[in-house]
């Protein structure tokens, strides 16, 4: 990726654009009252889609990466970031005064049905709050500087992590070679995620889990944030002996035992807070806007 994309410009990106269209109803702000810095929504959305390579990177049907909901003004003065876009997230975001929400899990996975019930309430919340929604799923997982996997790998101190595990044509995970005890990895993950992960299986010998943990060495570690536990066989086929992901099915325990792979679940939500935070921080800095993280943990 062109590293210059992550360098803030010498001046705000929208400096030459009009803040609002001319209108007889728009009076200048009274003396002493500051006017929020305003950037065109389309300019920010286009920048993010290019930065994250939305056109080049495939995804699942329903992801609809990019701008999913416009706001009424077509401008942005404040950015919010969240992992999800369900009704509670939108309500809390509306209370922050943000007019652009960046999410990893978008609003349109079940698009195509009637706009009733929760779908209508979410649309109304956005419209009432002048809130636009921008989503990036696999492209944000895969990004080498702002991605969930790259940032979790960095947070736990993986040396020279490399892309691995191709999904929809793009490697989204990160892998590295280390020589750590499992206890050391658990400590690193606990700090990065704000809590120790679930130890689904420790591959070292022992009659108890504690004995197995003490006997387990981590040498070839793979990270795929989110819900990749069901891909354990494919991950093990790439030579990984310790796999960190967010969650998986019940039968992933038996699979880990049979394959002799250490399997750790850090939580789907917890492992995917990194990307939206980094994206919001970068975009806010580039365009000279404030931002905040809307934390609505799922517990999963």
In words, what does this structure look like?
By secondary structure, the chain is an alpha/beta fold. It folds into two domains: 155 residues, Udp-n-acetylmuramoylalanyl-d-glutamate--2,6- Diaminopimelate Ligase, Chain: A, domain 1; 125 residues, NIF3 (NGG1p interacting factor 3)-like (Udp-n-acetylmuramoylalanyl-d-glutamate--2,6- Diaminopimelate Ligase, Chain: A, domain 1, 3-Layer(aba) Sandwich). It is built from eleven helices and 13 strands. It has a six-stranded mixed β-sheet, sandwiched between helices. A five-stranded mixed β-sheet has the order 2-6-5-4-13, with helices on both faces. Strands 1-3 form a two-stranded antiparallel sheet. Strand 7 and strand 8 form a beta hairpin. The chain is elongated. The N terminus is likely disordered.
Mean pLDDT: 90
Q: Detail the poorly predicted runs.
A: 1-5, 7-31
Q: How widely separated are the two ends? A: 32 Å
Order of helices and strands: EHEEEHEHEHHEEHEHEHEHEHHE
> How is the biggest beta sheet arranged?
6 strands, mixed
Structural class: alpha/beta
- Strand fraction: 15-25%
Total number of strands:
13
What spatial order of strands do you see in the largest sheet?
A: 7-8-10-11-12-9
> What's the Cα radius of gyration?
21 Å
The name of the CATH superfamily of the largest domain reads NIF3 (NGG1p interacting factor 3)-like
- How many structurally independent domains? 2
**Number of separate helices:** 11
The shape, in one word, is elongated
The CATH first-level class of the largest domain comes to: Alpha Beta
| The CATH architecture of the largest domain | 3-Layer(aba) Sandwich
Helical residues, percent: 25-40%
CATH topology-level fold name of the largest domain: Udp-n-acetylmuramoylalanyl-d-glutamate--2,6- Diaminopimelate Ligase, Chain: A, domain 1
